[in-house]
Amino acid sequence: HVYCPKVRRWFMGDYQNDWIFVTMSSNEYESVDKILEQHVPKEELEKVKLWMYGRAVEALPIEADKYGGDFEVKGYKFTGAAAEQMREARVVRIGLIQNQVVLPTTAPLLEQYKAIEAKVERMIAAAAAEGVNVLCLQEAWTCPFFFCTRERYPWSEFAEEANENGRSTQFIQAQAKKHNMVIVSPILERDVEHGDTIWNTAVVVGNAGNVIGKHRKNHIPRVGDFNESTYYMEGNTGHPVFNTQFGRIAINICYGRHHPLNWAGFGLNGAEIVFNPSATVGALSEPMWSIEGRNAAIANTYFVASINRVGTEVFPNEFTSGNAQPAHKDFGHFYGSSYVAAPDASRCPGLSRTRDGVLVTEVDLNMCRQVKDKWGLRMTARYPDYAELLANYVKHDFKPQVINDPSMEQ
């Protein structure tokens, strides 16, 4: 009974009307999985997990202790893809990294970045040791998530070019080449060619250490403490898919996961894996977290890899956000819980809500086509009808197609 509210919140959201602005307790629990394992009988737990996660995934044989215990390492194998006669299996290992910042936000900026870089380097090495082929870091991994403060300085100094001139891109290039790994590196971009404009951007680095391209965040939140439009606006790169040695990948950055058409754009362009690097807190979005990535994987027949940072970041100055909350110095708790979902409605257990972690998942990309063939979602879609509706909707004189009950007018 003690844990029932936490489990209920994971499944159903907060049952209070104002759950969006509820402040989470400082006594954070590690994961819903651990609560269920401790309190639900084994035979019943299997039924619960079938409902939560779909087809069971297999645990990969990982010796997490050999990495020193500073972060957890978990691994799972998706088993839903069938062997084909005309195509070879396309087995890929996907890696996700979630981490806390290292130094206080009052430390010199370069020292903050270098400390995070050193931690991430160890975590990338662990992912490589477990055979990861394509890996994604969390949103704005190079810095604390300072966007709540609305302070331009010193935080804007974390912005850098999203190419070979960028500090973090040079680091990621070296790591990608060293480990023969495609790495997605979400950063704060400084576009020096266009008036030093700032963007929220993911840089895609190939396994040869080359920069393949970048994608800018399509949807910018203006909710609660997420005051990101103080720093950057909506991206202008469309819905690109990057064809890599290890599959066709795309990046739906953070808030874009709340927009079904944003997910659809990457699917229509042929993505097989869509990463969702994020930074989101329990008081705002946790009831949505386990649902949105899985729904997107099902609706668009690709794998979704959802990454969230972890920990609580405290800033020097108090701030408010026009939501009737008292002035405060932190966002709240970033709840981690990174996971991968497959197009057959299965998903793996997530990483911890409270610890740094590396998640490794083994998938067969052939599953994407197999699920399309089974369910026929693309074949039965009505794209001309959707296109007509949207074309009309964006017109200033749009009229909703609503048919009124005549008896209501009597």
Descriptive notes:
- This protein is α/β, with parallel strands linked by helices and 410 residues long.
- Helices cover 28% and strands 24% of the residues.
- It contains ten helices and 17 strands.
- It has helices spanning 4-12, 32-39, 42-53, 109-129, 167-179, 260-268, 282-300, 366-375, 377-380, 383-393; strands at 58-59, 72-77, 91-98, 134-136, 182-191, 197-205, 211-216, 222-223, 226-227, 242-244, 247-251, 273-278, 303-308, 310-319, 328-335, 339-341, 357-364.
- The strands form four sheets. Strands 1-2-17-3-4-5-6-7 form an eight-stranded mixed beta sheet.
- Strand 3 (91-98), helix 4 (109-129) and strand 4 form a beta-alpha-beta unit.
- The longest helix has 21 residues, at 109-129.
- The radius of gyration is 22 Å and the shape is globular.
- It starts with a helix and ends in a 17-residue tail after the last helix.
Summary tags:
globular, 410 residues, 28% helix, eight-stranded mixed β-sheet, alpha/beta
